[in-house]
Structures are given as structure tokens and as C-alpha cells.
Amino acid sequence: MSYLTWQRLTLVALCSLVLTWLVTLVMERGGATPERVPWTVLVVCAAAGTSALWLGWQVRRYVKGDKPGLDPIRAARTAVFAQACAYTGAILVGAFAGYGVGLLDEWSHGPRREVVISALLGAVAGGALLAAGAIAERWCRHHGDDDRGDRTEPSTA
Fold it and tell me: Structural domain boundaries of the chain?
């Protein structure tokens, strides 16, 4: 399993932003009415981010030797969950930011302004999920692991 890199997360967020921005423009020009981002997005991102941080903290304690009874499989699953949270957060940041940016030209219209604000709140929630996942994944690394973002073995030549 390779580690998270900020370059990869940024690329995922930018691709999501551009794609959603283009779809929003096409849909708006086609006459579609934009919908507000549901408040449950904030709740789900907060719950998943909190879970990732709590589980990651348990693994961090295990890696430091403070919690010797933790199952290594649970630690591996926590690392995978943390990465999933980070990637999902990157997608949500880009998607909601692209949605909001696509509707910015309608800022003066009251109902559209509410949609833009809800999209930006969704992007903030996605950013919090991304950060929580990245922090938890970092806590799951072993002291001997390198910080390059991959696990390539040194050459013996």
C-alpha cells in the first residue's frame, strides 16, 4: 500500500472541481434548477472524520508501544479507512467547490446564493474529511517507514 501524497490528493480535487464545474455550467445553460447541498453532508463528513481520527489515534498508540494488544489487521484496516476518507474528502472538496464556482455568476439571485453557500459549506466539510483522513493515515505509519509516499525497496546494486 502506498502512502498518501498531497500531490495526488490535489490532483484528485482539481479533476473533480473541473469536471463538476463543467457539468454545472452545462446543466445550468440547459435550464436545470440547482439544488442545495444537503446538511447531512456536513454530519456524515464530521462522523467519518471523527471516526478516522479516533481509530488512527488508537493505532498511533499501538505504534508507540502504549497499546500492545491492538490487532495488526485492525491497524491495517484503519490505514485503509483513513486513506479512503482522505480521497473521498478530496473528491468532495473539488465537487462542491466546482458546483459553487459554476453558480457564482448568479450570486445576486437570493436562492442561487443559498445554493452557492451550501456548496461552499460542503467543500469545507470535505476539506475537514480530507485533513482527518490524512492525519489518521500519518498516525498509522511505522517509525521505520519513509516519508516519500511509496514503499519502494532500495536497490542492492
Answer: 6-29+36-139
